Amino acid sequence: MKRYLSKLTGGVAVCAIMIGAAGAVSAADSSVEVLHWWTSGGEASALNVLKEDLESNGVAWKDMPVAGGGGEQAMTVLRARVTAGNAPTAVQMLGFDIQDWAAEGALADLNAVAAKEGWDDVVPAALQRFAKHDGKWISAPVNVHSTNWVWANKKIFDELGIAQPTSWDELVAALDKIKGAGYTAVAHGGQPWQDATIFDAVVMSVGGPEFYKKAFVDLDTDALGSDQMKEAFDRMATLRSYVDDNFSGRDWNLASAMVIEGKAGVQFMGDWAKGEFLKAGQKPEEDFLCFRFPGTQGTVTFNSDQFAMFSVGEEGQAAQVKLASSIMAPSFQSAFNVVKGSVPARTDVSDEAFDACGKKGMKELAAANASGKLYGSMAHGHAAPAAVKNGIYDVVTAHFNGEFDSETAVEELVSAVEVAQ
Ligand code: GAL
Question: Alpha carbon 363 to chain centroid distance?
Fold first, then answer.
């Protein structure tokens, strides 16, 4: 399966009009300042692939890390930097945030390098929808993550004779067994974006792709206020009963560590979690299992980390273009994503270097796209703009922490989405 995403491209007109050379960069005066939230062990390893790649091309890397999974804190710091007139060269960014900054006129025009390197032909349409604004390339997509995964400790599954669950009932039965054996069943970090990541998968599993789209993309009031949504909240309450007492505020990578160390059975998390397992020397299918959240098989909720390029003076542009070009190189896309847990943002990268979970991820992404079952993740800014996303976060987290019952949560969700629009 060499061209795993070939079906994701169709239908996007080539609209780059500014054709020009990327320009040579002299080592002495070229550097990029990159704001990102890749601070966990696995994330830092992946970022190193990019740093080293760039440095070997004569561009110095000025690191601007802002810890906090999901990137909320990073976006707050970014806003302050831009307000102070001091935007970084490039910023890790998700979905609608990229479009919001582009609409403010803050982002650079990458059309020249995009045209020269043929990005239009190799970047899936689902990603171009966020990487381009008014016909201009404004960011370079580095990966595709998907968020509806389960990461399981294989030893615990084997010891308890648990088969990979494929339905909600099977999942609950598996969690009961794990809890009954004295383990923490669900490793979870109580932070709004993590609660919302689980909610993505639960909503998909309750109502299927059409319901997910109606609720999170179309923001349809009937779907948001439906019995199915109440069922989704009921399931969240059920999952809440399987987390340990110390879950509140825990970082996602510490939750991954609980599964890695054999203290917990499963984590529901995007495939950046795989980066932590790999970093700890674990192997898929030997030490850990990756499978879709039960009831969501065949569908994929995705997010794509992109590096949005801010308008910098002429002196910074050559290095910026070099960064964009490095990110888009097929060899880099393979090397980086093998470490990160994600899959390439180009259609023409071989799956050869990827492990079993990576190969599965690439295949399922292409299949979901071909069958119309690929949807942007609400939790990770690819279904609705930030204001709506944050409104949903508040309700999901308040409910998860027992402040609302499911019925109230449904009402609150409807009004939170209404207010945010
Ligand atoms: C996501 C991002 C991933 C990963 C994760 C946890 O939003 O797309 O690359 O970093 O946050 O930090």
Answer: 17
Q: Is the CB of 380 under 6 A from ligand 1?
A: yes
> How far is CA 9 from each of CA 121, 128, 348, 366, 414, rounded to the nearest angstrom?
7, 9, 11, 11, 35
Q: Are 178 and 244 in contact (CB under 8 A)?
A: no
37 Cβ below 6 A of ligand 1: yes
d(CA 144, CA 179): 33
Residue 314: per-residue pLDDT: 83
Residue nearest to atom 12 of ligand 1 (CA): 69
Does residue 43 have its Cβ closer than 6 Å to ligand 1?
A: yes
Token pair recorded at residue 176: 């009961």
pLDDT digits (tens, 9 = 90+) for 67-111: 999 999 999 999 999 999 999 999 999 999 999 999 999 999 999
User: What is the atom index within ligand 1 of the atom nearest the CA of 145?
Assistant: 8
Q: Specify the residue for token string 């932590």.
A: 276
> What is the distance between the alpha carbons of residues 246 and 66, in angstroms, rounded to a whole number?
24
User: Is the minimum distance from the CB of 355 to ligand 1 under 6 angstroms?
Assistant: no
Q: Are 238 and 266 in contact (CB under 8 A)?
A: no
CA distance 181 to 163: 16
Report H helices in 263-313.
Answer: 273-279
d(CA 91, CA 220): 32
Residue 305 DSSP label: E
246-282 tens-digit pLDDT: 999 999 999 999 999 999 999 999 999 999 999 999 9
Residue to mutate, 94, 145, 342, ligand 1, most ligand atoms under 8 Å from C-beta: 145
Q: Which among 143, 250, 272 is the best mutation to test ligand 1's pocket, defined by most ligand atoms within 8 Å of the CB?
A: 272
| pTM (predicted TM-score) | 0.93
Q: Cβ–Cβ contacts within 10 Å for residue 211, how many?
A: 18
| DSSP conformation letters of 121-163 | HHS-HHHHHHHEETTEE-EEE--BEE--EEEEEHHHHHHTTPP
* 303 Cβ inside 6 Å of ligand 1: yes
Q: Whose CA is nearest to atom 7 of ligand 1?
A: 70
- The residue ranges of the chain whose pLDDT is under 50 are 1-28
Side chain identity at residue 78, one-letter code: L
d(C-alpha 371, C-alpha 355), whole Å: 24
Query: Strand 288-292 and strand 305-309: pairing?
Result: unpaired
- Distance, in Å, from the CA atom of 107 to the CA atom of 42, rounded to the nearest integer, reads 29
